[in-house]
C-alpha cells in the first residue's frame, strides 16, 4: 500500500502539485489581498463550512434531493427521448412528423420552462425533474436519431440474409447496438446539460437540493457556504460522469476498444 | 439441394430526377447445378454484384426471375447465405456470437447455438479467437468468421460478393484454398463474384464471363482442370490468357 501511494505521487506529481499551488494562491489571495470573507471566502473558510454541513447532515439530504431531481429528469428523458429518436431514425415518416415539432421546441432554453414547471407541478420534485428532463431530452433524441441514421447498411443486409427480417428484430439486434456509441455520447452531453438545469430549477422551483442551497445561502450572505455547494455540485457532477463512463466502457462499449466516448 | 436458375434477368436503375435509366443487367440467363462452384467475372460496373444481390433477395430485378430449386426468389432467406466484400461482422458481438446470430434468429437458445456452431469455428480455424471482438481480428480472419457465420445457417447456396477483394494477395490465396476445402466438405452451391481472373480460374467449375454495362453473358467457360489446381501450370495460364482476352475485348468495345 505504501509503495502504491508513492507510485501514485510519482505518476501524478505534476497534477497534485498544480492543485496544491492553486489552493495556496487562493488562500493567500483571500487572506492577504481581498481580506473579505464575503467577497472571497478562503480555502480554510470553505473547509470549515463543509465540516459544518457534514456535521448537520444537510449535505446528505441536499445531495440526495438533487440526485432524486436528476433521476426523475433522466428517467423521463430516457423513456421519451430514446423511443422518439429510434422512431425518427428508422421510419422516414416518423422523422417527417416529429422533426418540425422538435426543431421548434429545442431552441427554447430549458430554464425558460421553469415558470410552467412550477405552475404545472408546484414546488415539487417533479417540477425540478421536469426542467432537467427538458434539458436532457433533446440531446438524447438527436444522438439516438443520428446513431440510427448511420447504421451501416451492410450490417442490416447481413442480418437480413441471416434471417433477421422484421423491423422490430432489426432495431433490437442491429440498430440499437450499432447506434450505442452515439446514444451514449448523447446521454453524456445530456447529463451535462441536465446538471446545469438542475441548479437553475432548484434555485426557483424547489425548497431543497444543492442548487437551492446556493440561492438560500446567498440570501443569508453566507458566501462560504455558497462556495461549498458550488464545489459540491462540481464534484457530484464529475462523479456521475465518471461512474457512467466507467460503466459504459466496461459493459456497453467494450467492442469499440474504448475509443469512442 | 441448391439448384439456381437465372432466367432472363434484367435490371434498370432509374434516377428520380430525370427519369432516365441505367441498364445494369440485360437479359441474363444461366443455370447452376446443385453443388456447383460458379464464378461471375466481368469488368467493374458490369452488374455482377447486382445479379448476386438479386439472388440474395436484397435487390429486385426489373424483369425475369431467379429461382432456387424451382421456387422464385422474392426476399432474403437463410437458405441463401451471403458473404460481403466489406467487413460485415457485427462489431458489438464476439466471433462466436456473430456465428450464432442466424441460429438465434431461428429461435435457438444462445447456449445451444454456441454448441452447434463449434464445428464451423473449427472449420475456419478460429478456435483461438472465438471470444474476440471483430476489431481484434485481421481482415482475413474477419472474412473467415463471416464465412462460418453464413455456413452456420446451413444454406443451400452461398453467395459471395468479392469476399477476398480487400485482402492482400497471400491471404487471398490461402483463403481460396480453404474455401475449396469447405466447399468439398459441405456440398453447397457457390455463386462467387470476383474481378480477379486468377481467382476465378483457381476456384470455379464454370466461369460466367460478363460484358461491360449493360451486363450480359459473354461466355460461360467450363474449367476442366483437376483439383487441387496449380496457379502457374501451362493449362492454367492458357485459360487465364483466354479469359483476359475476352475481358480486353470488353474494354475496347465500350
Which key features would you list for this structure?
heterodimer, A: MetI-like fold, 2 domains, 82% helix, B: 254 residues, alpha/beta, Rossmann fold, 6-stranded mixed β-sheet, 8 helices, 36% helix, globular
Commentary on this structure:
The complex is a heterodimer of chains A (261) and B (254). Chain A is globular. Chain A has 2 domains: 1-35; 42-256, Orthogonal Bundle (MetI-like fold). Chain A has helices at 2-11, 13-34, 43-56, 58-90, 92-105, 114-121, 125-149, 153-161, 167-205, 210-219, 223-252. With 261 residues, chain A is mostly helical. In chain A, helix 10 (210-219) packs antiparallel against helix 11 (223-252). Chain B is an alpha/beta fold and 254 residues long. Chain B has a domain at 1-73 and 192-254: Rossmann fold (3-Layer(aba) Sandwich). In chain B, a hairpin with a 6-residue loop joins strand 9 (206-210) and strand 10 (217-222). In chain B, helix 4 (110-123) packs across helix 5 (139-152) and helix 7 crosses helix 8. The mean pLDDT of chain B is 91. Classes of the chains: A mainly alpha (261), B alpha/beta (254). The interface between A and B is medium-sized, with 22 and 29 residues.
Amino acid at each position: 500500500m505504501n509503495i502504491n501511494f508513492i507510485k501514485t505521487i510519482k505518476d501524478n506529481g505534476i497534477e497534485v502539485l498544480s492543485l496544491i499551488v492553486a489552493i495556496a494562491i487562493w488562500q493567500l489571495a483571500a487572506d492577504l489581498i481581498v481580506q473579505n470573507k464575503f467577497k472571497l471566502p478562503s480555502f480554510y473558510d470553505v473547509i470549515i463550512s463543509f465540516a459544518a454541513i457534514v456535521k448537520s447532515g444537510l449535505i446528505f439530504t441536499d445531495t440526495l434531493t438533487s440526485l432524486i431531481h436528476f433521476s426523475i429528469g433522466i428517467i423521463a428523458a430516457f423513456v421519451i427521448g430514446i423511443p422518439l429518436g429510434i422512431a425518427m431514425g428508422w421510419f422516414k415518416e416518423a422523422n417527417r412528423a416529429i422533426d418540425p415539432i422538435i426543431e421548434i421546441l429545442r431552441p427554447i432554453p430549458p430554464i425558460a420552462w421553469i415558470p410552467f414547471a412550477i405552475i404545472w407541478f408546484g414546488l415539487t420534485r417533479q417540477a425540478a425533474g421536469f426542467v432537467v428532463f427538458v434539458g436532457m431530452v433533446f440531446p438524447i433524441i438527436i444522438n439516438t436519431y443520428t446513431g440510427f441514421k448511420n447504421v451501416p447498411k451492410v450490417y442490416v443486409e447481413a442480418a437480413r440474409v441471416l434471417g433477421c427480417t422484421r423491423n422490430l428484430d432489426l432495431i433490437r439486434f442491429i440498430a440499437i447496438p450499432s447506434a450505442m456509441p452515439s446514444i451514449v455520447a448523447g446521454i453524456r452531453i445530456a447529463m451535462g446539460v441536465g446538471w446545469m438545469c438542475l441548479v437553475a430549477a432548484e434555485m426557483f422551483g424547489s425548497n431543497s437540493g444543492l442548487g437551492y442551497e446556493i440561492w438560500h445561502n446567498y440570501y443569508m450572505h453566507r458566501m462560504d457556504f455558497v462556495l461549498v455547494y458550488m464545489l459540491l455540485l462540481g464534484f457530484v457532477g464529475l462523479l456521475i460522469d465518471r461512474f457512467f463512463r466507467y460503466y459504459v466502457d466496461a459493459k456497453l462499449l467494450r467492442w469499440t476498444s474504448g475509443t469512442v466516448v | 439441394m441448391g439448384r439456381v436458375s437465372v432466367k432472363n434477368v434484367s435490371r434498370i436503375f432509374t434516377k428520380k430526377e430525370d427519369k432516365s435509366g441505367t441498364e445494369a443487367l440485360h437479359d441474363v440467363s444461366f443455370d447452376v447445378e446443385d453443388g456447383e462452384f460458379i464464378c461471375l467475372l466481368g469488368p467493374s460496373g458490369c452488374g455482377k454484384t447486382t445479379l448476386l444481390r438479386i439472388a440474395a433477395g436484397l435487390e429486385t430485378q426489373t424483369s425475369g426471375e431467379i429461382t432456387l430449386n424451382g421456387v422464385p426468389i422474392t426476399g432474403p432467406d437463410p437458405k441463401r447465405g451471403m458473404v460481403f466484400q466489406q467487413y460485415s461482422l457485427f462489431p458489438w458481438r464476439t466471433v462466436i456470437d456473430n456465428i450464432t446470430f442466424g441460429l438465434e434468429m431461428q429461435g435457438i437458445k444462445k447456449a445451444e447455438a454456441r454448441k452447434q456452431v463449434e464445428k464451423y469455428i473449427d472449420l475456419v480455424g478460429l478456435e483461438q479467437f472465438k471470444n474476440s471482438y471483430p476489431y481484434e481480428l485481421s481482415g482475413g480472419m474477419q472474412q473467415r468468421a463471416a464465412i462460418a457465420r453464413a455456413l452456420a445457417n446451413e444454406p443451400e447456396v452461398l453467395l459471395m460478393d468479392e469476399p477476398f477483394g480487400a485482402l492482400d494477395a497471400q491471404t487471398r490465396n490461402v483463403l481460396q484454398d480453404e474455401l475449396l476445402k469447405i466447399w468439398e466438405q459441405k456440398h453447397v452451391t457457390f455463386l462467387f463474384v470476383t474481378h480477379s481472373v486468377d481467382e476465378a480460374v483457381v476456384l470455379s467449375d464454370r466461369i460466367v464471363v460478363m460484358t461491360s454495362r449493360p451486363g450480359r453473358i459473354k461466355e460461360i467457360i467450363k474449367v476442366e482442370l483437376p483439383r487441387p489446381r496449380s496457379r502457374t501450370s501451362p493449362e492454367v495460364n492458357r485459360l487465364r490468357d483466354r479469359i483476359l482476352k475476352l475481358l480486353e475485348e470488353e474494354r475496347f468495345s465500350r
